[in-house]
Amino acid sequence: MARRHPNPKDxxxxxxxxxxxxEGCDVALGIGGGSVIDAAKGAxxxxxxxxxxxxxxxxxxxxxxxPPMVMMPSTSGTGADVSQFCIVTDTVRLTKITIMGRVLVPxxxxxxxxxxxxxxxxxxxxxxxRPQRLGDGAVVFGRRxxxxxxxxxxxxPDAQDDGLPxxxxxxxxxxxxxxxxxxxxxxxxxxxxxxxxxVAVMERTRRAALSIVEHxxxxxxxxxxxxxxxxxxxxxxxxxxxxxxxxxxxxxDHATLAIFxxxxxxxxxxxxxxxxxxxxxxxxxxxxxxxLVPASGPFAVLRSLRVLRALRLVSAVPSMRRxxxxxxxxxxxMLSITALLALVLxxxxxxxxxxxxxxxxxxFGDLGSTLFxxxxxxxxxxxxxxxxxxxxxxxxxxxxFVVYILISSxxxxxxxxxxxxxxxxxxxxxxxxxxxxEHAAEEQIANREILAELxxxxxxxxxxxxxxxxx
Length: 471
Description:
The protein is an alpha/beta fold and 471 residues long. The protein has helices spanning 10-22, 34-49, 121-124, 177-181, 189-213, 218-235, 239-271, 279-291, 312-316, 318-329, 331-356, 361-364, 367-378, 383-391, 397-467; strands at 27-32, 58-59, 69-73, 85-90, 95-100, 108-109, 138-142. It folds into three domains: 10-204, Rossmann fold (3-Layer(aba) Sandwich); 214-316, Four Helix Bundle (Hemerythrin (Met), subunit A); 329-446, Helix Hairpins. The protein is built from 15 helices and seven strands. α1 (10-22) runs antiparallel to α5 (189-213). The longest helix is centred in the last third of the chain and has 71 residues, at 397-467.
């Protein structure tokens, strides 16, 4: 896998893994600088655990040991050949992600100082620069040859290897071969090719599902099906329409349910373990799962829950998701206002029972009746009739009712609206900041690539100047 960019990008690593799986390889060899070595690590990680490279952002997100990794660094000082880090450029979010884990430490690091002999001294001391001899470097995948007894042969070094330590003999899989293999692998090439073929088919299926799910026409089509299903469920409640076109309505209902199941299946295949990280995906899955419960016997009541499928419109329309997100963000503030309203209601209830308990026992006879009457008054339901009944005996009772309504209805309830609006504004501002950060990250990556190219041009110019004979 030839490298042409200064930073390993996510799609380049996934393309390398595709070639790794298609060829039935079981060893990853990285020759080049830190970016090339990171690309080899990423491809080996996908070969071991599958999925997408973004799934492993963070610390120890990988499950098992990677295939054997042999690294040959051609720069002095990057440390990527012995580290447990892998830096990848996320081309979607336009930022760099860090993957960390002990399994990312290469099995073998081949340090050959001869790779650095053609580099200028000042460039040799600057790890970020590219070497002049190997260019952009390369990631090589291969299958290890084995003898009949399961041994991995090792080349006999030549006598003129510049005095480098010679390692004679063969690496046995049950002894020092563990340093190269890292973990046991199937010795049968057919078994390796079979497993790799299955992995390759699964990855092609995931990519095909992802291309469908992320197609611009996919989401509008799902929204149209949700609206059609909601209309169908409403028409089924009419006895006349159900009698005239009941068969057609049932067919449309079953067809839309099948489309919903296909939608969930495609997203599961496309996103894998990331499917459950989105709460809206979980919501859609639960709604569709409820519709699959048999609507007979003790589960007949669940038939009425089919209408919940119409709520999928909330998860499908971004503006509705934004509103729901604002409501959830406003929950902490709304809880505080609810506590304040309950306190006001309780204080007014105690006062009302003490003042008007003997005047209107029906409405203020005890604390429970008073609280219900005050809640009814807060909503504006029939409160004038209640107030006039009390005012016939206590003329100044209007002061109590007016003050209570001003506090509970005009002040406290309006605070709910203020909190929700504030949460919506905060969410919109957060989205705007995220977009600005995305554009800034894109510009930063572009600037870094330009600077990297400039450094390479300077290094080539310096190398050419060093090779020009002085008169």
